[in-house]
Design brief:
Helix content is 24%, strand content 21%. It has five helices and seven strands; from the N terminus they run βαβαββββααβα. Strands 3-2-4-6-5-1-7 form a seven-stranded mixed β-sheet. The longest helix is centred in the last third of the chain and has 15 residues, at 168-182.
Length: 221
């Protein structure tokens, strides 16, 4: 992909860890703790802005100052930002996880994340591809093109060597993380958050209220 004015962003560093059997019944098949996503989402939404309306002087919070800032999309006036995630080149597992991740991000009042086998003409399009080669220590990366002010297109690469060994929870966390970058979010300092630079099988794939508030700060009117 030709990057033009765009930048290269290395996103997720895989750090799987084993859960403790005392964590309760929410375990996957290899013993990793799996957060209850429905409960997490209800908690996040309960603490998040209900509308895409930013207060005067609103700024993103808890971002990693050493991160390379990603560009936002240009949001239409008075409407949600619609971003299409292209799944036509993905296997069944990753298509399913991308669809789940899009549903999670669409809970933001600013965002409608939709999946499509191929993007429609003129759409805000994010291509997603699998790569079975060596991944330089990361399980996902995102590249984008911009026009200087706004993102124009993006590509997420899922490195299947580490992701195929990850639980569905861990792989979903990687995909939610990379999709968050394509929506304009930078890395978070909060170590437990899905937008932190390190995720693993125990990472809660549901963004927290600050992630959703940051989207309002970026796109709110």
């Amino acid at each position: 992909m030709v990057l033009g004015l765009g930048l290269f962003l290395t996103a997720c560093v895989s750090s799987p860890s084993q859960g403790d059997p005392d964590d309760g019944p929410a375990q996957d098949t290899v013993g990793n703790f799996v957060p209850d996503r429905d409960d997490s989402l209800r908690e996040t939404l309960g603490d998040s802005p209900a509308e895409c309306v930013a207060s005067a002087g609103a700024e993103v919070r808890d971002v990693d100052p050493e991160d390379s800032p990603v560009k936002p999309w240009q949001k239409p006036t008075g409407g949600e930002l619609v971003v299409e995630f292209e799944t036509g080149r993905l296997s069944e597992r990753y298509t399913r996880l991308v669809t789940e991740a899009a549903t999670i991000w669409s809970e933001s009042p600013c965002i409608e994340a939709v999946t499509a086998r191929s993007c429609t003409g003129g759409a805000n399009c994010v291509a997603i591809v699998e790569d079975g080669s060596r991944s330089r220590g990361t399980d996902g990366e995102m590249r984008w093109d911009d026009n200087g002010a706004y993102m124009e297109s993006a590509t997420i690469t899922l490195y299947t060597q580490p992701l195929d060994r990850a639980s569905d929870n861990g792989a979903l966390a990687t995909i939610v993380h990379e999709m968050g970058h394509t929506l304009g979010l930078d890395h978070r300092l909060e170590r437990s958050d899905v937008m932190n630079s390190v995720t693993g099988d125990n990472t809660n794939p549901v963004p927290d209220a600050i992630d959703f508030a940051n989207l309002v700060a970026i796109y709110g009117t």
